[in-house]
Amino acid sequence: MNRMDISRKLVIGFLFAASLFAMSAMKAEAAEKAVDNYNLHCVQCHGSAGTGKGINAPFLAVQPRNHTSDKDMSSLTDSNVFKAIKEGGIAVGKSTQMPPFGGVLTDAEINDLVKHLRAMCKCKGPA
Amino acid sequence: MKEEVTRVNRMIVLCCLMLAVMFGTSAMAADGKGIVDKNKCGSCHKMSGPAVKTIAEVMKRKAPDLFYAGSKFNKDWLVGYLQNPTTLRPAGTVYLNNITTEGDTDKVKGAPDKCASKLSAGDAAAAADYLMTLKDKSMKTGVAKIGDFSSARAKLLMTKDNACNACHELPKKGGGLSCPTFDGIGARLNPDWMYSFIQDPTHWDPRVWMAKGTFDDAQLQLMVNYLSSLK
User: pTM value?
Assistant: First the structure.
């Protein structure tokens, strides 16, 4: 192997490492933290305290769910909650007032939101 | 021969007139840019793309993006608004920056800041000319077909099947506060932009807090027709 080959391999290796680094940086930028997604998307109706009293709540025909309530949240399975966020309330037999966020949040972000909601209610869904 | 000369002269005059109009329009737009710069519109509005892509950046937004104003707005409305701005977003540009919590209930902190511009009629017209040059060339035009539509079906689609009024105020009926009012939206927005925004709001604002529904062309046309009628 001559010096030229070694240099070429080094350059290729460096470029590969750089692209991996760039890809991981992009991925990190693309995924938002669950708390930030909750604040931006959910608080407008469910409120800063998560009790269903956001600024839009008085104008809704159905009271937004209280995310801090064990009683309200433990009756829902995690897949139910995921589906409601992704496809809207109607997908789980609830109100159309809960819109589908699947077009603006990734599945990974919605899964993180489900975990965030479980932390808020300090509860689990039915097994 | 004489007729030929007259025809050529006419054509020269016509060309000169066309050039004068073209030059006049671009000069107006150039003047408009000066007015926009002088009034520091860019200190609150993003005047060049691309749109921000993170929530942290959204939270720093002071006023709506204007780098696609020419695709979004109707020019006549812009001319009026720049002379006498009104509040279009009841809870401010980013609602999350303008709420307070009493007990466990959120309230809007107070009347959000209005746009500071109060331009003269001439400056407003020139600024609007310039703003209308700021377009997203990827937006399809001539898509929205404004015509006869069923208001009852549109209301059903936008309030019962999809709760648009949960976040947007309806004229005289009220509604949610976190998004721009529907009052006067027909005068304000270009129907093609409304079509595009409802179809995919993330194209315009990757971290928008509006949900993205799945609508077919007939539903989009119905919504855009209804919104365009709210003048």
Answer: 0.84
